[in-house]
Amino acid sequence: MSHGLMKPLLSALFLMLTLPALAEDDWTSLPHLPDPEGFAGSFAGVSGGALIVAGGTNFPDKRPWEGGTKVWYERVYALEQPKGTWKEAGHLPKSNGYGVSITTPEGLICIGGGDATHNFQEVFRVAYRAGQVTLTELPALPQRCAFMAGAEMDSVIYVCGGIETPTATEAMNTLWALDLQHLDKGWKTLAPCPGPGRILATMAALEGSLYLFSGAALKADAEGKPTREWLKDAWTWQPNQGWKKISDLPRVAVAAPSPAPIVNGNILVLGGDDGALVNFEPKDKHPGFPREILAYHPGSDSWVGLGDLPFSLVTTPAVEWQGQIVIPGGEARPGKRSPAVWMGRITPP
């Protein structure tokens, strides 16, 4: 066997030996979100030991192809225990969706986002205590931004990509950083990603490196409206070394839950939209998005599949809560949200 074939086979064997399957039997259903439709584009994280879900969008009356209108929300919900009951715990400053969610010891940080007409620069911390949330304003982003990706590393939050306006026909490739230990310095603009500007990418941070996976570039169609170019490239960034191209994903994975979970030193991309059914008809029979779990091993710069999820949810955060991965709702298929909340173990049994 050639050395070229040996490396990916050994990498796949290593991943299978060091990772739990995280397939369908490893996931349990938590109480549904207290909305019959559920939400996409919500903020989600942990504060005061509780799971927090805030904002997001849905189509409460009709699907978009039936003339339905997308509605943005500002409600904040909290679940104190996996077998508990969701409580309405407060409100965001305004209806908001499709920003970045980062959990810190002090609470959930909500970054940017937008509504039907404007994207936002605001950044704030949501802290939960005694059944209610309090909001603390943090330094605003350098620009209005939504549909970006983000991750936290060594007490610094990083945000990459996104769009400045809801109708933008070009995505940004910007990289911004906010040092949580030096908030007075505000956001710093770092070298942009050398790849295409993108929306709905997935990010992760592991052992001093950031990782940026997939997403979609934008361009104008014949009518001047934004259309997507589906990406499966991947990049890594280090503070003193800048950007480096790494192995492409085996398939496109737009809007996979982010920040991507880390398991035994490997980064998991949970599903994501591969674009294969973007023109599927009839729309109300769309079967949903890919359920395959992809695992990236930085040491070997390789990918392997780890089985399938029991759900098909995109445009939703991934949250670590009580030592497990939580996927709180999201878009189950185009125009259709889900109130389901899933919890999967991230340590071997």
Topology readout:
Elements: H1 3-18, E1 27-30, E2 43-47, E3 50-54, E4 57-58, E5 71-72, E6 75-79, E7 87-91, E8 100-104, E9 107-111, E10 123-129, E11 132-138, E12 149-153, E13 156-160, E14 175-179, E15 187-190, E16 202-206, E17 209-220, E18 226-238, E19 242-246, E20 262-263, E21 266-270, E22 292-297, E23 302-308, E24 319-321, E25 324-333, E26 336-345
Antiparallel strand pairs: 1-26, 2-3, 3-6, 4-5, 6-7, 8-9, 9-10, 10-11, 12-13, 13-14, 14-15, 16-17, 17-18, 18-19, 20-21, 21-22, 22-23, 24-25, 25-26
Protein architecture, described:
- With 349 residues, the chain is mainly beta.
- It has a single domain, classed as Neuraminidase (6 Propeller).
- The chain is 5% helix and 43% strand.
- The chain is built from 1 helix and 26 strands.
- The chain has one helix at residues 3-18, and strands spanning 27-30, 43-47, 50-54, 57-58, 71-72, 75-79, 87-91, 100-104, 107-111, 123-129, 132-138, 149-153, 156-160, 175-179, 187-190, 202-206, 209-220, 226-238, 242-246, 262-263, 266-270, 292-297, 302-308, 319-321, 324-333, 336-345.
- The strands form 7 sheets. It has a 4-stranded antiparallel sheet with strand order 1-26-25-24, with no helix packed on it. A 4-stranded antiparallel sheet has the order 2-3-6-7, with no helix packed on it.
- A hairpin with a 7-residue loop joins β6 (75-79) and β7 (87-91).
- The protein starts with a helix and ends with a strand.
- The relative contact order is 0.17.
- The model is unreliable at 1-17 (pLDDT under 50).
